[in-house]
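ok so I'm stuck.
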Amino acid sequence: MTTHYFSVDVEEYFQVSAFEGSVPRDLWERLPSRVEGSVYGILDLLARHDARGTFFTLGWVAERHPKMIKRIAGAGHEIASHGWDHVRVTQQTPDEFRSSVHRSKACLEDLSGAPVLGFRAPSFSIVPGREWALDILVEVGYRYDSSLFPIHRPGGYGYASAGREPFVLERAAGNLDEFPPATLRRLGLNLPAGGGAYFRIFPYALVQQAFRHFDARGVPGTFYMHPWEIDPDQPRQEAPLSSRLRHYTGLSRTLPRLERLLTEFRFTAIADRYSRSASLAAS
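replied:
not stuck anymore, here's the structure
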């Protein structure tokens, strides 16, 4: 059986892009934090299934919850970067992005005591025209990215021409490995099947079939989720109906579906790819 990649985008329930127009950043400090309880629930879940994961964490969250970062790392999971404060790449200049990914990397490495190899952009916002972000990741010292979602989708993300399987991005600044979220190929289209709202709202069979196809090819697929997706009791935010439907639908289904997913498939952290390569090189 193929070992796939399990990943978590560690952010608060109020930091999602869908609430940008409804929850100003200057309110963040006054809203109740719920990220720790959800993250610890995910750690317990992974431990029960003998699985490891990659936790793409906001620097803003890590700075306020240092014990949580140390607990994730202490449980044997990978700490990676989700940027500093969930600003999408499409809303940043190159200098702003460089500052964000450098600051978050330094903070996470200091707290975890381990190198931060990977990055995932908030809302998968490295899109066509923003490839300069990939060069900056290489310059800052990242080894891999997981931001190119190979789908057609309006709303600020999607890189339809990207590969569906892990591949190498050859950039002027150097090479960068890419781990795209899982998709299922049907009728000439890539259907999003890597996790998130698609996991909560669409039938479980969509994700199941995608990972069975990856298994059949012997290629690892990448799954992603957020801590707030296992928290149906989180405070409700005022937002447009479409945003509320996308954010709150299916929250009570997430944990049972995760239990099933982790029972049917084997998962580890993305960093394991590099530890295995190092072991093979040394043998």
